[in-house]
Amino acid sequence: AQTVTQSQPEMSVQEAETVTLSCTYDTSENNYYLFWYKQPPSRQMILVIRQEAYKQQNATENRFSVNFQKAAKSFSLKISDSQLGDTAMYFCAFTFGNEKLTFGTGTRLTIIP
Amino acid sequence: DVKVTQSSRYLVKRTGEKVFLECVQDMDHENMFWYRQDPGLGLRLIYFSYDVKMKEKGDIPEGYSVSREKKERFSLILESASTNQTSMYLCASRPVKALPGEQYFGPGTRLTVT
Fold first, then answer.
1. Do A44 and B4 lie within an 8 Å CB cutoff?
2. How far apart are CA A75 and CA A66, in angstroms?
């Protein structure tokens, strides 16, 4: 079974700084999909960014970008120019392409004013 | 905007009660999911459904059942609630045209079983 590991339970960073959240996964498959989800305090979880494993180019969505290292099975999230609204729980997730999405344990990120 | 709603934000039930958690989505999504979220464990899939009256077990189906009589509504049922089912329950939906794993979540129901 695939596993997703987020080794940083909590992180904090000053507003406007850049922060990187780490995620590693374990699979023997070649084709799969990776995601970062954000869960703000008392609000709904939303998708931040997605990466298809067959694409070599790292995905980018405005201030959010990923560093996808397929050989190392690493999928880190970089948040540039962090804002107070980025304070949230962040989950890394993985699927082969069926409906089973495997989540990591999450990283609680606090942006300090 | 996609809207996924859950019937209650907070629920307190007694051990042994039958509990219904309701989820409704308004975007005609084919696939719907139920997860539970526990600190230090992330989200774990309980059941999912890819069509009306169809269901598939997730990773932790024991103690739960589901019902999908209409496309927009997916219910999670705890037949006899136990204290170890105290948790946050999240519903999600996905249109088949989206990438696998690209899901839209509801606000969650925090269930306490005493």
1. yes
2. 7
Helix or strand (DSSP H, E) at A112: strand A107-112
Q: What's the average model confidence in pLDDT over A8-30?
A: 95
What average pLDDT does chain A have? Answer: 94
Q: What size, in residues, is chain A?
A: 113
Using DSSP's 3-state secondary structure scheme, residue A100 falls into: coil
> Is A108 within 8 Å of A54 (Cβ atoms)?
no
Average pLDDT over residues B57-73: 96
Instruction: Kindly tell me if the per-residue pLDDT of A43 is higher than 90.
Output: no
Q: How far is the C-alpha of B31 from the C-alpha of B100, rounded, in Å?
A: 10
Contacts of residue A42, Cβ cutoff 8 Å, sequence gap at least 6:
none
pLDDT score of A30 more than 90: no
Question: By the 8 A CB rule, do A49 and A33 touch?
Answer: no
Q: How far apart are CA B110 and CA A52, in angstroms?
A: 33
Is some CB atom of chain B closer than 8 A to the CB atom of A105? Answer: yes
Interface probe with A: pick from B36, B38, B43, most Cβ of A within 10 Å = B43
Contact A90, A37 (CB under 8 A): yes
Query: Is the separation of the CB atoms in A21 and A8 below 8 Å?
Result: yes
